Amino acid sequence: MQADHRHLEQMLQRYLRDDLSKDEVREMLEYIVQHPALAAELLNEDRSHVFSEKLLHLPDLPESASKRMYERLTTEIRSREQAQEEDAMVTTPVRQLHYRWRWVAAIVVPGMIIAAYFWQSGNHKINPPTEQVSVIKDVAPGQNGAILTLADGSNVILDSAGNQQIAGQGNVQITNRNGQLTYNAGHNGTEETIYNTLRTPAARQYKLILPDGSKAWLNAGSSIRYPTAFKGRNREVETTGEVYFEVAHNAFNPFRVKTGSIVIEDIGTAFNINAYGDEPAIKTTLVEGSIRLLTGSNNKVLRPGMQGTIKAGNDEIAVSNVDVAEIIAWKEGLFNFNNLDMETVMRQIGRWYNMEIVYEGKKPEGHFSGIIDRNTNLAFILKSLELSGMRFKVETSTTPAQMGKIIVLK
């Protein structure tokens, strides 16, 4: 850690003296992303202002993005002492992750991605543009929004602007307010178990508070089916896509999540499930507490910082240690591309902007890294990726319900 401290300190000093080459600037940005807490420590208030002002003059950085980055960074600097005091009082892993991501976004990429930070692994160099000219139409980012399907099959459209009381089912009251759907903890007044389904289309996300007080955040293209009132011994829900849970623990009434043939049992927990149909594996990442993964005859207990991976058509559970903050970046309003292959990067982009990904020729090789605010428009992200030598064509849809296309050119 001491060596890391000296290395980053030297790079920052040279950067502030205008003594870094473009390649070295990219290396410095990479290093900050890998060591966000260290960067926050080294960038005191005075140096942070100078650092942010200099970032405004990086090449290929649009003026609007530069201005937004500067304003957001200086706001974070002013509130840093207060945030540190608050986090000193709350030491749960989830709050620590929130604090870390606030500073990654503030120092490195508030509101946008620093274009020079993307690279293709192997040579870490920016490739010269190809002869083919890209055609990029801009697309706004996703937002809060979902579709609630009631027990009778009727659908209710939800959005962040809507504050509404939804017709109750039995004695259960459902409230939609400020991008959050809430069920009260009352009994539904019948012996029958009544189910609702909350679904987020592409380019939408939403938060749900279940009848027992457990919380679920749905990423784009996801769903959760759940009873309007939990009965009996087990509290069970079913999910598709990506969902982050903070479970209200009850040792007498276990919380279970089913996704396909896989079951996740809560043992007092916050965890993330990524089970998109177009991903090669289902990944469950534990943030806090512990969970048990069950599939076929196999089961594994995960501890915080562990990820269980189950590949399609295989009941084997592979367990590895991961950077939890990277996995739940989407919930904090960020993309985190940490040495990801291009197909994985484009799948995430496609879901959030409601775009089909089409490869005109051979799929690009190499891996990419960078952190992006999910409120960033599509054009700036693609133009940043083009620094690696790629080219894109964007075809927008005629209606919001239809998917557009991002064509990765030869």
From TrEMBL:
Pfam families found in the cross-reference section: FecR (PF04773), FecR_C (PF16344)
Ranges where the FecR protein domain occurs: 197-291
Q: Does the keyword Lipid biosynthesis apply?
A: no
Q: Which InterPro entries match?
A: FecR, FecR_C, Ferrdict_sens_TM
Bilayer-spanning residue ranges: 101-119
Record keywords: Membrane, Transmembrane, Transmembrane helix
Write down the superkingdom of origin: Bacteria
Task: Indicate yes or no for the key word Cell membrane.
Answer: no
Q: Where is the Protein FecR C-terminal domain?
A: 335-396
Q: Which PANTHER family match?
A: PERIPLASMIC SIGNAL SENSOR AND SIGMA FACTOR ACTIVATOR FECR-RELATED, PROTEIN FECR
Which protein, by its recorded name, is this? FecR family protein
Recorded source organism is Chitinophaga defluvii
